[in-house]
Amino acid sequence: MKLFITRIVLALKKFGDWATAQLIFGLLGLLQMLPTAKAIDFVDRMARRIGPMTSRHQLAMENLRRAYPEKTEAEREEIARDMWGNMARLAAEYVFLDDLFDYDPNAGNTGTIEVSGTDIFLDLRDNPRPFIVFTAHTGNFELLPIAASAFDLDVTALFRPPNNRYVAERVMKARQSRMGKLVASNSGAAWTLARTLEEGGAVGMLVDQKFHKGVTTQFFGLPVKTNPLLAKLQRQYDCEVYPARSIRLPNGRFRLEIEPAVTIPKDANGNVDVAATAQMLNDKVEAWVREYPGQWQWFHDRWAIKHEL
Q1: What are the domain boundaries of the chain?
Q2: How many CB atoms lie within 10 A of CB 152?
Q3: Is Membrane among this UniProt entry's keywords (predicted)?
Q4: 275 contact partners, CB below 8 Å, separation of at least 6
């Protein structure tokens, strides 16, 4: 009897995921019928109205209260609404990637996309070596691996697939067509990334995701657990580590930045300090978020406080 009930529950969940995915795909299909700018502006406006009605908005506001105790509630609400607009744009921009990404390394910053740090991209291309590039969920971070590909860099990117299997399959297909190699964040991901670096390749990682285990660090002055994988890979392969981010600019434009390689903290014995490196990553992401707070995903339970609400 229990087995039968379990099968029914799984079947219902599968159907629910399928129905949700079809609704999402249908809405995105409708967007394709509109001009790019109008479609993206439309979902932005809608998300700013609908987002605050969701349960995730409550979590986002509590995160903002803890991160910005000095701000007024109205200021925090404005950041949250900007976040919903940014998230809606990110989803819609999947549909229009071919129209949006118009950057040509040979022409420079002449279109929708501008790139800062082209000399670093060119050096990594012309002098192949293993390296790690890290980023955060800011702006349209999906554009970064496309930029690397535009400079003929083969980067293996670690990503967390959506929980909905049907959405995950569609997202994976869209990413692979433009973003090079992708590795889902599962139990075998660390081995795949290590092998990539061992073979002289490059690895891309998001470092601001919630992590249940790992190193105890600070983010906005609050305790969080941080994934030590980047520090451990750097310790093993002694490769350069580069920060990179996406910034959403006015009028539907973007700036993609890659910064000079960071100095990895070492302990008294000259070995990589994993905890200090994890903290350094958090400090970099926090600086980015403070500069453009409405472009970060505040509805993630980064500080593991959801159970308190």
Answers
A1: 2-93, 109-300
A2: 12
A3: yes
A4: 215, 216, 217, 228
pLDDT at 214: 86
Measured distance CA(230)–CA(205) in Å, rounded: 8
The pLDDT tens digits for 247-298 are: 999 999 999 999 999 999 999 999 999 999 999 999 999 999 999 999 999 9
| Mean pLDDT score across all residues of the chain | 86
- Start-to-end Cα distance in the chain: 36
Report residue 73 CA to chain centroid gap: 26
Residue 245's H or E segment, with its range, is strand 240-249
Give the pLDDT confidence of 121-131 residue by residue, as tens digits.
999 999 999 99
Please, which residues bridge with residue 137 across strands? none
Q: Which residue reads 């690895």 in tokens?
A: 203
CA–CA separation, 289 vs 285, rounded Å? Answer: 6
Helix axes 229-237, 274-291, angle to 10 degrees: 120
Strand partners, 157: 182, 204
Instruction: Compute the residue count for the chain.
Output: 309
Assign 31 to helix, strand or coil: helix
Residue at 31: amino acid letter: L
Tell me what pLDDT residue 210 has. Answer: 84
Instruction: Tell me the C-alpha distance between 265 and 270, whole Å.
Output: 9
186-to-50, 220, 252, 262 alpha-carbon distances in Å: 32, 28, 34, 27
Please state, in angstroms and rounded to a whole number, the distance separating the CA atoms of residues 156 and 128: 14
